[in-house]
């Protein structure tokens, strides 16, 4: 049974929900199969909302099968709202061992929002209390603070100045970049497309000539596999639709519109699969900038698995710098021996 408490202010009401899953276990669940909370109704100043939490014990897709994925559903009968959500995993001593935030987003009716890597499955045994799993979800309705908006405005103004300076320095290069942006209009344009991707139940139209130029993997696919089958449809089963679309945007325009840490994590995997080195480097940089005590070991294993050399080196450095905290964690105890040896070797080199 979901519990509710919280404070309500005139502009930004905040609600918190405690979800206790009795006798939690992962056995018997399939990839993509979810445990659903009861629907909880919330009445704000003007409207009534119906929300629900979903937990995927074995992940929502193949990439995340070693994680428990979390989702927040603003049900069909509710209105869209703007706000921020925090998911917290609580252990048997009421300590928050994992916290994931979704900041300043529009939560549309019947659209699932969440995080595919809420927590690694190996942590389950350490967080259960009498066999029960406890998750706290906090919903803060309303936009970001004015201070945050002002900060974003300053950053935007700084970008504008940089763009104007660049145009003065090299008008021709800037013009070419703007012309290149026109290719974004071709993304998912049905009229001139010659290949269709089916991703998570969604359809995305694309162009073989562009994709094969940008990726040797796509070139081989179009030249051999699809030629043999005489088909122009490709089903993608192991990449989320939002991730695949951002990857396609990069292939068409050389840019990514959304690059938070979650998207960067998934895009790195996709970039490795489709041999997009520039995109992979871009995501590595983003993840390097986002290293924390709680993410360093996860990013280290990601980098090791997908050959992200820069991220791996930076993650090892970060772990050494914060060893007093990180080596005491349950995640470090579960780290593969080979990576522990590499960390110890890097420590020894710093000492000598």
TrEMBL record:
Cross-referenced InterPro entries: BACK (IPR011705), BTB/POZ_dom (IPR000210), MATH/TRAF_dom (IPR002083), SKP1/BTB/POZ_sf (IPR011333), TRAF-like (IPR008974)
A GO BP entry: protein catabolic process
Domain of life: Eukaryota
Residues of the BTB domain: 193-260
Pfam families: BACK, BTB, MATH_2
CDD domains in UniProt: BACK (cd14733)
SUPFAM superfamilies in the cross-refs: POZ domain (SSF54695), TRAF domain-like (SSF49599)
Signal peptide: none
Gene3D superfamilies xref list: 1.25.40.420, Apoptosis, Tumor Necrosis Factor Receptor Associated Protein 2, Chain A (2.60.210.10), Potassium Channel Kv1.1, Chain A (3.30.710.10)
Domain MATH: 14-139
Protein's recorded name: BTB domain-containing protein
